[in-house]
Amino acid sequence: MASKQQSCIVCQCPDSTVRFDGILQCTRCSHVYADLERYVSTDLELLYQEEYFSGAEYSDYVADRPVLQQNFRRRLRVLLRFVDRAEDKSLLEIGCAHGFFLDVAGPFFARVEGIDISAGAVTYARERVGVRAVCGNFLSHDYQGGLFDVICLWDTLEHLPEPHRFLAKAFRCLNDGGIIALTTGDIGSAVAKLRGRKWRLIHPPTHLHYFSRMSMRRVLRNQGFVPVYRSSCGFSRSADNAAHGVLALRLGRPELYQWLRKHGLLGWSFNLNLFDIMYVIARKRSLSEGRDQVSGLGK
Questions:
Q1: Global pTM?
Q2: Which of 28, 149, 233, 284 is 20 to 30 A away from residue 244, measured at CA?
Q3: Alpha-carbon distance 215 to 10, whole Å?
């Protein structure tokens, strides 16, 4: 079944086919995305109120801080390999939520700050974590404090109706030679192909774009970035949040989740790598540079 509801953000093709119910695939470049006319409201921030972090998506995001920061420390260790003299550099996190990554990154950079559309999360970041963060939309926010050397989007790009516009503005907000670092799901992975519509990362309206390695490389290059690193990254996760996602949200058995929690059976965490989350770092391309010359990143 063909569709002409919206243009692909990767190649601007107006035509798509239905991959799954509510999920489209570009007929030219195969980028996968949600039917925005069906899922996106004008008040996107309404999706990310306190309920999102305490029941709607996560069981208890704040309680998971130690586990989340394990992930952030691993990502930071990789990131620092690509930042020369980080102690003199500035970092911005788009989609900073409660500021847990900013807290981890702060000691390594001269300045870190974040932005998020969730007012409650930003208030927590400022008042409880003690980091610099603002509530707002990155696309419309005016950064009068100057440019940044590093911009991060951890598990954020898939939430955005127009991620290419965020990347374009990130390019403008970076100093010469600056880098962007991001994580997002890889719909070209074996797990995503095997699970199909049941892949755990396909859940509009909060996830709207589903990148493959090729489409990620292409959208970054379109916005002026040269990819310099890509890997499949694992993650730490609390048993509580995993059980909440599977039992309460997917299987509709919240009473079983609550029973496990009540009897203290979910107070542990685990590490897992399903090779379906990509970690990409890209450098702002200078005017004198040509096309991306990094071998293998688009394979």
A1: 0.93
A2: 233
A3: 7
How far apart are alpha carbons 108 and 88 in whole angstroms? 9
HSE-CB of 173 using CA atoms within 13 angstroms: 24
Is domain 47-53+61-235+273-284 given the CATH code 3.40.50.150 in the classification? yes
For the range 197-203, what are the long-range contacts, defined as Cβ-Cβ under 8 Å and sequence gap of 24 or more?
Answer: 197/20, 197/21, 197/23, 199/276, 200/245, 200/250, 201/158, 201/276, 202/20, 202/23
**Measured at the alpha carbon of residue 271, what is the angle toward residues 163 and 83, in degrees to the nearest 5?**
50
Domain ranges across the chain: 1-39, 47-53+61-235+273-284
pLDDT (tens digit per residue) in 55-75: 989 999 999 999 999 999 999
Query: Do strands 209-210 and 16-20 pair parallel, antiparallel, or not at all (unpaired)?
Result: unpaired
> What are the phi and psi torsion angles at 71 (to 5°)?
-60, -45
214 CB neighbour count, 10 Å cutoff: 16
Q: Any idea which residue has 């040269």 for tokens?
A: 226
Backbone region of residue 296 per phi and psi (left: phi > 0; alpha: psi in -120 to 50; beta: other values): left
Q: Residues 135-190: pLDDT tens digits?
A: 999 999 998 777 999 999 999 999 999 999 999 999 999 999 999 999 999 999 99
Mean pLDDT for all residues in the chain: 92
Instruction: Tokens 């949040």: give the residue.
Output: 241
